[in-house]
Amino acid sequence: MRILCFGDSNTYGYDPRSYLGGRYGPENRWPELLGRITGWEVINQGMNGRQIPRNHSPQRLLDRYKPVDLFAVMLGTNDLLQGASAHQAAGRMEAFLKKMVPRCPLLLISPSPVQRGAWVPTDALVEESRRLAECWGLVAQGLNIPFADTRNWDLQLAFDGVHLTENGHHVFAARLGEFLKKMDFPS
After folding, report:
1. Based on CB atoms within 10 Å of each CB, which residue in 70, 118, 148, 179 is the most buried?
2. Which stretches of the chain are assigned E, i.e. beta strand?
3. Range of the domain at 98
4. Distance between CA atoms of residues 43 and 65, nearest Å
5. Residue 166 domain-assigned (yes or no)
6. For residue 131, what is the domain's CATH number?
């Protein structure tokens, strides 16, 4: 089983304690942890600051790593941080995923809702991030693809209110591994 994880800094493993875009070690990043838990090949294609692509097809990325058994997408937080509403982000996500549906199996993952912190100054942003998971669920339902809702996974966020702590990455990997096993992916 080969999973390609396409996401932002929380997939990349950004360490908010660093000032220059540093990241946690592979032993503390959820994609790598997921690979160890499941025994599958899990490719980390997270990138700091990534928003939902608008005029971009990741076909080259899929070609580089083919065969891809599952394309797991977790994006949306940066779109909200840049002023998009959950509804606007959902429109972008739906358009992006529609390009991907015929190419390979997909999994849509909601980012952990943000909380008040150094990067999250308002309760309105916190509420909009909670709405994002609802919107992602509707997008996944409309495209008939699996959806992992992380809202109740008790993921620990760092002081900035956005990024997973090392513990948060471990919990995320364990919960996603459980989710995937319920989907009957071969181990």
Report:
1. 148
2. 2-7, 41-46, 70-74, 106-109, 147-148
3. 2-182
4. 9
5. yes
6. 3.40.50.1110
Q: Which residues contact 101 (CB under 8 A, 6 or more apart)?
A: 143, 145
Question: How many whole angstroms separate alpha carbon 8 and alpha carbon 10?
Answer: 6
pLDDT in tens, 37-82: 999 999 999 999 999 998 777 778 888 998 999 999 999 999 999 9
Choose among 167, 165, 170, 173: nearest CA to 39.
Answer: 173
19's tokens: 């000032």
Size of the chain, expressed as the number of residues it contains: 187
* Model confidence pTM above 0.85: yes
The answer to whether the CB of 11 falls within 8 A of the CB of 35 is: no
CA distance 144 to 102: 12
Residue linked to tokens 């150094």: 118
Q: Residue 187: inside a domain, yes or no?
A: no
Q: Is residue 92 a part of any domain in this protein?
A: yes
Q: What letter represents residue 97's amino acid?
A: L
